[in-house]
Amino acid sequence: MSEEKFTQTEEKDEVKENKMGTRPINGLLLSMSLPMMASMLVQALYNIVDSIFVSRVSENALTAVSMAFPLQTLMIALAGGTGVGINAILSRSLGEKEYDKANKVAVNGIFLSVLSYIVFLLIGLFVVKPFYMSQTDDAEIIRYGVDYLTIVLTCSFGIFGQFIFERLLTSTGRTLYTMFTQGTGAIINLILDPILIFGLMGAPKLGVKGAAIATICGQIVAAVFAFFFNMKKNPDVHISFNGFKPDGAIIGQIYKIGIPSIIMQSIGSLMVYIMNKILIGFSSTAVAVFGVYFKLQSFTFMPVFGLNNGMIPIIAYNYGAQNKERMMKTCKLSWVYATAIMLLGLLGFELIPDTLLSFFDASTEMLDMGRVALRVIAIHFPVAAYCIVTGSLFQALGVSVYSMIVSIMRQIVVLIPAAYLLSLINNVDFVWWAFPIAEIMSATVTTIFFIKIYNGTIKHIGENR
Question: What percent of the chain stands above pLDDT 70?
Answer without folding.
Answer: 94
